[in-house]
Specification:
Layout lengths: L8 E5 L6 H12 L2 E4 H14 L7 H8 L4 E6 L2 E6 L11 H10 L3 H13 L6 E5 L2 H5 L5 E6 L2 H16 L4 H17 L12 E4 L5 H17 L3
Parallel strand pairs: 1-5, 1-6, 2-5, 6-7
Antiparallel strand pairs: 3-4
Helix pairs in contact: 1-9, 2-4, 2-5, 7-8
Bound molecules: cytidine-5'-diphosphate (CDP).
The site of cytidine-5'-diphosphate (CDP) has 17 residues, from helix 1, helix 2, helix 4 and helix 8.
């Protein structure tokens, strides 16, 4: 039977380590919505390019590879995940070569339009929380539920450093700050779909807010909007 009910989409955008991923996952759990991390799709394309020895600064090579890949998307415990050519990239998505090259791959217009379409298709999994850089501005501009999380660069570097230490056992805060700043600069200044506060988004500065506070702020906002018929 066709499902004519429109999915509720919560768009959460913001720069790296603004708290987006943790908050978005928690918001999705509380609302019992599906979670989609759009950055993982760009990381997936980058992971495969690195694996295949493709030079990410060469758009033709990347695009050629992109059209040969077989992506498969599915929802596992209400989180949208994927395989590429039958392989689950798992934690490799957060490895050093991927995090250093992903913003360059994300400047290629053909990669963006291909992945934006795949991201829109995840609507078939139902009501969702999607986090990224252009969810409210490009992927789902019509959703009334848009949030933009930000935090001071020092605080973002501190958070990302903590994650890296947990994952890799080491890390240097000033290097992390440099790497985040470089990626932010590419994301904010790229010609196509740059990171920006989309029209109608509620801006939340998370520098001195705890995760719980941000989660409950968003959840109550969404619940209120749903109870008013959006
Ligand atoms: O976890 P973090 O916020 O550092 O990164 P991410 O959300 O996994 O995104 C990795 C990169 O993918 C970003 O730096 C962007 O270059 C790109 N990206 C994008 O261009 N558009 C999106 N909607 C999501 C990510």
């Amino acid at each position: 039977m066709p499902n004519n009910k429109r999915s509720v989409i919560v768009a959460i955008d913001g720069p790296s380590a603004s708290g987006k991923s943790t908050v978005s996952k928690r918001v999705a759990e509380d609302l019992k919505f599906v979670f989609v991390g759009s950055g993982a799709f760009y990381r997936g394309m980058t992971w495969k390019s690195v694996r295949e020895g493709v030079e990410v600064k060469n758009p033709e090579q990347v695009i050629h590879l992109m059209f040969q890949l077989k992506w498969n998307f599915y929802a596992e415990n209400r989180v949208v995940v994927f395989t590429i050519d039958g392989e689950d990239p798992g934690l490799q998505l957060r490895s050093e070569p991927v995090r250093e090259k992903v913003a360059t791959i994300a400047t290629i217009p053909e990669v963006r339009s291909f992945l934006v379409e795949r991201l829109r298709e995840t609507k078939r999994f139902g009501d969702m929380v999607m986090e990224g850089r252009d969810v409210g501005s490009v992927i789902f501009p019509d959703t009334p539920l848009k949030f933009y999380l930000d935090a001071d660069p020092q605080e973002r570097a501190r958070r990302r450093h903590k994650e890296l230490v947990q994952m890799e056992g080491e890390g240097n805060v000033s290097e992390v700050l440099d790497s985040l700043t470089r990626r932010d600069q590419i994301d904010r200044t790229r010609k196509i779909d740059p990171l920006q506060i989309s029209l109608g988004a509620k801006v939340i500065n998370t520098t001195s807010l705890g995760i719980e506070e941000v989660v409950s702020l968003i959840v109550s906002n969404v619940q209120q909007a749903i109870s008013k018929g959006l």
